[in-house]
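Sample 1 of the test manifest.
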Amino acid sequence: MQAYTGTNVSRLPAAAAIVSGGTAAMPRRFDIVTTKLGGAPRNLTKGEELFAEGDAADFFYKVVSGTVRTYKLLSDGRRQIDEFHLSGDIFGLETSHDHRFSAEAVDDATIVAFRRRRFETLAHDDPALGDQVMSSMLCSLERAHDHMMLLGRKTAREKIATFLLNMARRISNDDRFDLPMQRSDIADHLGLTIETVSRTLTQLARDGLIKLAATSRTVVLCDKAALRRLNA
Amino acid sequence: MQAYTGTNVSRLPAAAAIVSGGTAAMPRRFDIVTTKLGGAPRNLTKGEELFAEGDAADFFYKVVSGTVRTYKLLSDGRRQIDEFHLSGDIFGLETSHDHRFSAEAVDDATIVAFRRRRFETLAHDDPALGDQVMSSMLCSLERAHDHMMLLGRKTAREKIATFLLNMARRISNDDRFDLPMQRSDIADHLGLTIETVSRTLTQLARDGLIKLAATSRTVVLCDKAALRRLNA
DNA sequence: CGCAGAGTTGATTATACTCAAATCCAGTGG
DNA sequence: CCACTGGATTTGAGTATAATCAACTCTGCG
């Protein structure tokens, strides 16, 4: 927990191991920690379910590549996607015994699973490990709160603008990027319908704020200033 | 962090002190811990601001009595109330140096402030203390996620039903309770307008699911089963 | 080439918003 | 005790934003 302990996450070996996933390029001890936590890479095919709401939360996960969506369903099938987890993101760590979300691969993705019990044991010996996860959760909380503002008070145009700016920042440093998810995912994330998502994107393109490639998954942000004005 | 460490919060002395606020009825050591954390009771009058978005987050708080709202504003004044904090709730603990919310008293309220820095020091010696706050944050995260579903995918009628059931549970064990906040607060919490809140409450009363007293702050849940059906 | 899934576009509608006015209520002062 | 005031709430009328229903287009792929 970066701010709470005053420690810098980047200086914490255990934390760094979780964040990076313990690649071959890293010092030996980082790999040991990762291995201890039981990081076993797993490939998911597009649409594959990783866990469902109510499943035992024995593991939590880190995205190595690809994208994972976590979501909740209402009894009649309405869906709210709370977050898209991109490469490097940690997700699925729960307060309770069960998962409160379902998780599926948005596209073909690779994830690493960490055994929660083992992590808990280690965290007691190494507070820095707990700090790191705490930090991750606090980021999640922060994004959740911003997203509440979006869902509760922003217009469709503002929602799309905010979404595009966030994805641009997370996916690439460039203003050109490929959205990994389809329109229905965006809709269920922003509290809209696919038609409204499509229309709004078209409208933003018509107004010159963005460009949509033929495949329509590729987006170019042309007028970030205007998008930012819509963002708040 | 209850689930994460596997420890039961109720068995943790430091945690218990934070939760309870260290009343006179509690064993001496609890009071000592609370005092160490710098709990200085403070009275807030209706509408008084406790802190604003962007203020330094040197303290966090626990509600002793009354109700506090935390919220964010868009540049044009649109407001999203993320949570109403009732007696016993902890709020205002941040990941960053600054508060990401503003906080105001909904009615006359009493709160206890805890110095964050001091808490951090103690948390390092006593992991249980950190666990407790972690647990508090995870509850907050859980509620935030449920609230995203509400904001993104529920109808006005469903939002109000969910809100009433939640408030009933939190305020009293009874089906009759007084709402501490006014319609505009409810509206900004549920992503509605005051008119829609009012109309929806009237409609629910007309349909016999609830009763509204003359003062219209007092609510009676008549048909909880029907309300629950609207809830999910 | 045709099919299926994804995405776009169009027409219409519904839900919730906006603007406006009336009512209710607590508090205040004559 | 009662009229007056101002804030909160309710109610009404009309509207707008986004949803719904439906058709059509595009793209990738067997």
